[in-house]
Amino acid sequence: MVLEQERGQIVEYCRRLPSDGLVVATSGNISARSGDMVAVTPSGVDYEQLTADLVGVYRLDGAPVEARLAPTTELPMHLAVYRQTRAQAIVHTHSTAATAVSTLLDELPPIHYLIAMFGGPVRVARYATYGTDELAAETVEALGARTGCILGNHGTVTIGATLGEAYTRAVYLEWLCDVWLRASAVGRPRVLTPAELEQVRVKLSTYGTSRPHGEAGD
User: Is 74 among the residues known to form the active site?
Assistant: First the structure.
């Protein structure tokens, strides 16, 4: 089976989507890239019924390599992101807080230092119909050099060097949106400055790195 490892990982993370509150029913989709091939979820399959052999594999031009079922309608978006960024994995969600934020803001401000993991404030892409080349283009533009964006009146897209990284960012982005909604419901949230975010970015660049005993670290 082509891209067997990637397809297995996609199934693993897809089964986490509902319990992590990132999708409703069969909404959302996940993909992983290897070379010039992309493994991506099929359209409309219950995540509990999804198996690795049902995850399709396509080339970057959209040509099927090994696909039993029709791909997610967002395949054009996934392929466009891979062609325009260094992403090796993409997670697209319809999480509640982020979708609500997508109807209110043009950009999620730095309400918490963890927004630094996305490269700064998270942009909201202009609305476009799902599954279209227009949505794919708007997504690529909103991402820019960021590692995540919010899709207007739709959901989120996060990318990473691994599927685990892209998925973790999807979880954090939903949390950040929830924090903003809660804070803005009772007042005007304070936000961090660019200098404060830069300090966090530097710290995050070494977060989790093994250090000899005696060196500082959280």
Answer: yes
Measure the CA angle with vertex 76, ends 144 and 132; round to 5°.
95
pLDDT of residue 212: 47
Domain that holds residue 185: 4-204
Tokens for 134, please give them: 């227009």
Q: CATH number for the domain including 196?
A: 3.40.225.10
CA separation for the pair 63, 66 (Å, rounded)? 9
Torsional class of 135: left (φ above 0), alpha (ψ -120 to 50), beta (otherwise):
alpha
Examine residue 218 and state whether it is found in any structural domain, yes or no. Answer: no
In which residue ranges of the chain is pLDDT below 70?
208-218
The 10s digit of each residue's pLDDT in 67-111 is 999 999 999 999 999 999 999 999 999 999 999 999 999 999 999
CA angle 31, 208, 92 (to 5 degrees): 20
Nearest one of 37, 89, 40 to 61, comparing CA atoms: 37
- Catalytic position from the list 6, 74, 165, 174: 74
Tell me whether residue 209 is in a domain.
no
Q: How many domains does the chain have?
A: 1
